[in-house]
Amino acid sequence: MKDALDYSEVPNAHHQKSKATMSQVDPLSLTLLFKKHKTTVLLMLPPHETIATAQEMLLTALRSRGIREINGDPVPDDFSDIEFGVTVDKNDLEKGWSKLEIAMPELENSGTSKRGARKQTSLKAADIRNGQVIAFRFRKPREESEKDGDLDIDLELEDPGWDVVVPSLDDEEGEPN
Known about the structure:
The protein is α+β, with helices and mostly antiparallel strands and 177 residues long. The chain has a domain at 26-140: Phosphatidylinositol 3-kinase Catalytic Subunit, Chain A, domain 1 (Ubiquitin-like (UB roll)), CATH 3.10.20. It has helices at 13-22, 51-64, 107-110, 114-120, 169-173; strands at 30-36, 39-45, 69-70, 73-74, 82-87, 97-99, 133-138. The radius of gyration is 21 Å and the shape is globular. It starts with 12 loop residues before the first helix and ends with a helix. Residues 1-22 are annotated as: Disordered.
């Protein structure tokens, strides 16, 4: 009886070995946990990747699993409709979340919009750390107000909140075996 697989007996084994080494993850990559309601998506991204790339990778991961909605919220078609939130207290997720804002004083004079800057900002520049939990939500499509002749101004005065369910040990105690 053999304990280990002998690659000399496997056809095209040299190809299988090379595929495994090519798909290895960069050891400097960040392991990030993106959460919405009871859904958690684990992504490994290099720290130099942009926020926009992280949004795009998250949307790709959701689509690859056939997820079309999370807790009644439809998954958007465009990655720019995904917003990220960071914890108020890294040690206590129950304390809540705040929208990921990127402070960039150099934008004051450059004429670049904050939204455009967010897409260019790297995870490292946004102070995203390895193992960090990041909430995500989907922007709701705005209702057209052209009928009334009103201008549609996105002031973001009302924060819709973050739908993140944090599991606890108490959740498992009440469940029968």
